[in-house]
Amino acid sequence: MEIKERQRDIIEAAGALLTRSGLSGLTIKNLAAEMQFSESALYRHFTSKEEIILAMLKYLAADMDKRLADAVQGVDDPLLGFKNIFESQFRFFSQNKHFVVAVFSDCLMEESVRINETILNLIAIKRRHLLPIIVAGQQKGVFTDSIVPEHLMHITIGNLRLKMFKWKEANFEFNIEARGKDLINSLHSIILKNK
């Protein structure tokens, strides 16, 4: 996704505002005050609050797609690929909390059909990178084959989302990368094939 420098500044300011004030605090008026802009100056870059949120989520989607592709590129070991995907997510979100707030804000998915579709696209991106690793892990006898790949994927993505939600609800007070490693180890226990 092509984002101009000023649009990126607006997205980052919107993220800071989301982190502090939640979705209800993200208004054009508050964002203009945050950036020391006039409201009309913001409207030159984005037509609405929805457009700002969409830009933020689309930026996240493009970044996630690239990061996860990089995390598994050239990795033949399914266990390492699995670990790399999750560690990439935890590392990124620990440095970009506003994306967690955006994805897990109350009622965000009900805000608009376009926002809902964009959030669902984020899940599809994770699926596109994770499912082939799970399938390869089962084919190589590394991951259990007693659970179909699709269900293993749902178990792992669901746990990732729950951990992120708990972190947000705890006001980001625990180390998500450390807790993420614990989660990865627990998921390994579930998905590894018993020898």
Question: What would your notes on this structure say?
Answer:
This protein is mainly alpha-helical and 195 residues long. The chain has helices spanning 5-25, 28-35, 39-43, 49-72, 78-95, 97-104, 108-111, 113-139, 149-169, 176-191. Helix 5 (78-95) runs antiparallel to helix 8. The longest helix has 27 residues, at 113-139. The radius of gyration is 18 Å and the shape is elongated.
Please give a quick description of this structure.
This protein is 78% helix and 0% strand. By secondary structure, the protein is an all-alpha fold.
Summarize the SSE layout with pairings.
Layout (H helix, E strand, L loop, with lengths): L4 H21 L2 H8 L3 H5 L5 H24 L5 H18 L1 H8 L3 H4 L1 H27 L9 H21 L6 H16 L4
Helix pairs in contact: 1-2, 1-4, 1-6, 4-5, 4-8, 5-8, 5-10, 8-9, 9-10
Shape: elongated
How many E strands?
0
Radius of gyration, rounded?
A: 18 Å
Report the order of strands and helices.
HHHHHHHHHH
Straight-line N-to-C gap? 45 Å
* CATH topology assignment of the domain at 58-191: Tetracycline Repressor, domain 2
> What share of the residues does DSSP label as strand, in percent?
under 5%
Low-confidence region ranges = none
* Count of runs of 4 or more consecutive helical residues: 10
SSE class = mainly alpha
The profile of the biggest β sheet is:
none
CATH architecture of the domain at 58-191: Orthogonal Bundle
Helix fraction, binned, reads over 70%
